[in-house]
Structures are given as C-alpha cells and as structure tokens.
Amino acid sequence: MSSDTEFSCQSLVAIFISRAEPLKLNRQVITLLEQKGVPSQEFYKLQDAQLNEILLARVYETKAKEQLKKSAGLLRINYLAKRNVRFCCDPFFASLLREITRSKLGIIKL
Which CA distances in Å does 72 have to 23, 32, 33, 59, 96? Predict the structure, then answer.
C-alpha cells in the first residue's frame, strides 16, 4: 500500500509512543503474574529489597546520594557531594530523604 492510497475505516486508533518508565506492581498485576506461575515469594523479595534501599538511604551517604539522584533529579547531587555536603546530616537533605521515605512507603502499602 503506497502512502497516497485511500482507504476507509470505521474507527481511528491513535498510538502514542511514550518513554520507558519504571514498572509499578499493583495488586492486579501481581495477581495476574501469580496466576501465570510467578511465586508470591518473589514479590516479597522485591518489596524487601525496596524497603532496604529506602531505609539505607537514611543512614549511608552513598545510598542517600543514589536515592536523591533518583528522586530529586533537578538537584545537582554530584556537584554537592564533591563539595562535601553530608546528605544524611544536613537538615534540608535529611528532611528531603524523610519525605522520599514517607512517599515510597505509601506506595508500597505494607
């Protein structure tokens, strides 16, 4: 079919190509995956890993830096780290990390 060929159709389908984003597993997706044979223990492992990542960011500078880079992309975290900003100790960044933790814990819904 050439580009100038005419055709008729009853409906128009629009396709949007979006950028890749991290997958968020909700209860419906987890249920479908379990029905397809994925053991529920795998979801607990993922949840545990996510919780550890969140909590370690409140204690360790390197983890805090990683978390802030993921969640606060507009801040120049590498620039600040080179200037010896202590993310876990600085009141602003500590409060930002607390809010990131609170937000992520709300998403996980234990």
Answer: 19, 32, 31, 18, 9
